[in-house]
Structure prediction request, 513 residues.
Amino acid sequence: MTDTNQREHSSRADSLPLANAAEARRRSEARYQTLFDSVDEGICILEVLFDEQQHPVDCCVLEMNPTFEQLTGLSDTEGRTARELAPDMDTFWFDVFGKVALSGEPEHFEHPAPDRGCWFGVRVMRVGEPRSRQVAVFFRDITERKQINDALRERERYFRSMADTAPAMLWVTGTNNQCTFLSRGWYDYTGQTEQEGLGFGWVHAVHPDDRQRARELYLKAAEQREPFKFDYRLRGTDGKYRWAIDSGRPRFDADGNWLGYIGSVIDVHERKESEQALRRADTRKDRFIALLSHELRNPLAPIQLSLDLLDHVPAGSPRASRALEVIERQIGQLTGLVDELLDVTRVTSDKIRLHREVLALDELLKDTVEDHRQLFLERDVALDLELCDEPAPVWGDRHRLCQVVGNLLQNAAKFTDPGGHVVVELSVCAETGRAEICVRDSGVGMDETTLANLFEPFIQADTSLDRSSGGLGLGLALVKGLTELHGGQVGVESEGRGQGARFSIWLPLTDRN
Prediction:
């Protein structure tokens, strides 16, 4: 090979790497340009222009892809300034571009474009050397997403507003079973704050004796993704616990994925107490029916025996006379039981009629006490009457008021042991315009549970009271009903078992002649 050929070969060999590098650069630039022009995100490369005080005042467009032009409505932008393209451009943009160009810290934010009726998601980042003061701006139309988010926020506001005004306490949980929302009603009812109530904090407002059960029932239902309903006692802001029902239903998305629960808590304390009262009344009713059967059957046996005896003894003989006395006495007892039942029925159904007149209570008490004195003598119980000096006229039915006082006396005699003492007192209070009749005994007394329901019908059928003297336990119910028909009130006090009792009746005084 000649020297000339060698030099030509060497020259071609030296230029080959340069050509390859240029081709690679060209292909890279082509790929970049294709990518730059085809992405669905607007991209713009800007050079930020500053004044002498280094305040950003404008920017020059170096490059802009077609998507950016479509989003902004600009065209023929290369080499032109923003103020030239958009004279009314908000200085907010220059401040952001300048800040990024100087600090190198990228910015990411959302911004409205009122003239185009849309929202943009914007990212700004520095490109090139810091001294070039160039930034890349990325624009994405987020109007649809923004509308969806706004709609979701509006729905959430609507739900919260509805939940906060609902009579029930509403709540929502997530997939981790923890409470994510409690309506305003919960916080007003329990006094908890959001920090205290959310998560599993709500259980701390539940009565300590119900807390573990409530948590376990909820978690068991959540494990099975099933609806649930259970009750517990819930603490109010006054520190008192009231019965509430907690119920929830599972939530699922369109694909059937479990999202958690939505539910409500409702105060049912009054209903719960009513149900318990009904159960107690039903129990008392059953006991009363059993007692009534017993009390009605008791006179039948001596009546039957007496009738059998009359078939075998001469008429008019002493044995026949005693048998008739037994029959008469037992029939009287049966009649008394039936009359007592009828009186209670009339009082409770408001069908009893009072024959009113002006009555002097002192005279009425004297007569009633004397009518019952033999009963107390037979039981060896002392009976005293203490009257006041003031007149005590009332507008009432003499027969019914005698029945009221008589029932209290019979009750005192029944529950006072031999050797005991019963006092009947009459007093007048000019300030209240009422007379008070008090029957005080030294008998067996009562506990708080018995006192609370003493004037309810059939309460004396309770086996906790002495049943040795018989009766249906309707006497005190009649006392209350008849006293209230006269516009009065009844009350009872006792220090406990063995401490005796004090029954009081208050009747309005009358100024009728």
Q: What stands out?
A: The radius of gyration is 48 Å. The chain has a mean pLDDT of 84. The first strand starts at residue 42 and ends at 50.
